[in-house]
Write a structure and sequence with these properties.
Elements: H1 5-26, H2 33-40, H3 44-47, H4 54-71, H5 75-80, H6 86-95, H7 102-119, H8 122-148, H9 158-178, H10 185-199
Length: 207
């Protein structure tokens, strides 16, 4: 008999929860069908119903990570308020990317561990590129608003400024994860503020 749709959805939710638990403990390097099966208390044969290949498992894990990142609290953005725009909104969005809290560290560790798996597979790499592209689009919106408010120079393409900001915070994420004592939250914040101050200087400004 074919399982009821509700049973199937419930089972898939259990599988997804097991995938997430493996990710939080082992990262993408330890994400295998066997590891998920052990976490679920099931056989690898059962999991092939949901993930016929390792790529399918990794893709699902990336989707879960994307959903978790989208749903997680964004304290700096919330603190800035729904009417925030321009440079304050850009700063808040960038702060919410950084590993400034225990939850932020955990989420960023999983993201960084996913890079190796994504780089090894063109389809997964394309998925990652699309995700970072969407993030740049959101940042570009904030940059463009800041330019309209004369908070950022208008002689530079807003997409280029957004890409520079994204590249800066991702690099800072990596440094903070590998050397947390050297890059505590207050230093990360100070470095971001210094970066934004430099970004506010017109490219053709006189020395």
């Amino acid at each position: 008999m074919t399982p009821a749709r509700g049973d199937h959805d419930a089972r898939r939710a259990e599988v997804s929860a097991a995938v997430w638990r493996v990710l939080t403990v082992r990262g993408f390097g330890g994400l295998t069908l066997r590891a998920v099966a052990n976490e679920l208390g099931a056989t690898t044969g059962l999991l092939t119903h949901y993930f016929p290949s390792k790529r399918a498992l990794l893709r699902h894990a990336l989707d879960l990570l994307d959903q978790s990142s989208s749903a997680r609290p964004r304290p700096h953005t919330e603190r800035a308020g729904p009417t925030a725009e321009g440079l304050p909104a850009l700063r808040a969005a960038l702060l919410d990317i950084l590993p400034l809290t225990t939850e932020g560290v955990a989420g960023n560790r999983i993201w960084v561990s996913s890079w190796d798996a994504a780089l090894a597979d063109p389809e997964l790499a394309a998925d990652h590129a699309a995700r970072y592209g969407r993030s740049r689009e959101r940042l570009t919106t904030h940059v463009a608003a800041a330019q309209r408010r004369d908070e950022l120079p208008t002689d530079r393409d807003p997409a280029d400024l957004a890409a520079a900001a994204q590249g800066f915070v991702l690099g800072l994420v990596v440094q903070a994860l590998f050397a947390p004592d050297e890059f505590p939250p207050d230093r990360q914040t100070a470095l971001l503020d210094a970066f934004l101050a430099d970004l506010s200087t017109p490219a053709n400004a006189e020395a």
